[in-house]
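Regression test attached.
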Amino acid sequence: MNAFLALLVRDMRLATRAGGSAMLAVAFFAAVAALVPLGVGADLKLLGRIAGGVLWVAAVLAALLSLDRIFQSDFEDGSLELLVLGPLPSEAVALAKICAHWLTTGLPLTILSPVLALLFNLPARGYDALIASLALGTPAISAIGAIGAGLTLTVRRGGLILPLLILPLISPAVIFGAGAILASLDGLSNGAFPLLGAFSFVAVLLSPFAAAAAVRLNLQG
Amino acid sequence: MSERGLSWANLFEFANPKRFLDVSGWIIPWLAALTAILIGAGLYLGLFVVPPDYQQGDTVKIMFIHVPAALTAMFAYGAIAFASLIGLVNRHPLADVAAKTAAPLGATFTALALITGSLWGRPMWGTYWVWDARLTSFLILFFLYLGYIALWNAIEDEVRAAKAAAILALVGVVDVIIVKYSVEWWSTLHQGDSLFAQGGTLIAPVFKWPLFLMMGGYTALFILLWLIRIRTEILARRTRALLRREA
């Protein structure tokens, strides 16, 4: 457990200090969201309606952008090999890195999202659902993203292929997450949260195994 | 062999590449003939014998090339996942080759299902594309296929590429089921199952026979092309190995 926490803290430090990309991902999130009204027009009614979906898509893109941080830099300087050989099972290494990625990407995005939602004129009754759905759903993005990051570890220009692998896999999170916000806007009973939670839970539970297998195979010979 | 039936032990006898080349070489002409007969008969019945539907008119006949394509696309993904599992567990190169070669076929059948579906949708729904549950899940399936193929092409080392692709295929098979339910929850406009509905099929008997023939024909076509592709891949790898030895 100590080793797990040590790795978690180390990864969070790396992400937040100079050269880390945590702040960049958050800035990217805001920039993508700011681009949407320029594209679809400034109709506040329309923007309020699509705010949840836009912020969800922007969150997915921002998380994708920082996925290479999970394994890539450790792989390049050789520390990933030491981590896998170390006392922690490689599945636990993957889980620690997933948690660190979420704490430095998903969580800040969730906290920032109400501010951006203001710019989108999201009706007041949508904010709870917005924050809850991002908090519940973004761990799934980090978890499934880690599988993609592990699989493309030795691929040159892996950043290009990673979105193609990951986006179809995380589409259920976007469907349930943005759906939950829309349902709360319409005042409907919200069945999306249990589904989103279940998807996120299963993703976080199973992804470390797939990600660890992917990392191990890329470390062999 | 006849007593044991199709057990694991003798399934792997055919997994020897040499054995596979012999047996598949013998099967292919017969399978090609079967494919031609099934698709020929299905198309003849479907296009010339079956009456136009009282609601859909002649457009109903798109069903005969659309529904089997969709089924084959899903069958192909199942085949990839199964071959990937065998490849990961038993580390057999033939399973890796089988998974790799099925993917472009599956992607093609998925594209065929999407295209024929949108051609049917234009006169029936008044638009080429609607974001309904099945269309959306098939579009996502298509992207899964593309990602799978891209991963195979991106990793140069064949053994490593096979393992990485197998992990992706197995993750994808869990995900594809969730995707299917999530998009169904999201929106539904597409008609429900009529062929395998509870309490027997809902489809009129005149339409049933050409549809079953076409389904058999598409499945046979998929297996035929798959066998040919596996043979090609085995021979290509052998050629590469020979060239490497010569160099």
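Expected vs. actual: identical. The radius of gyration of chain A is 18 Å.
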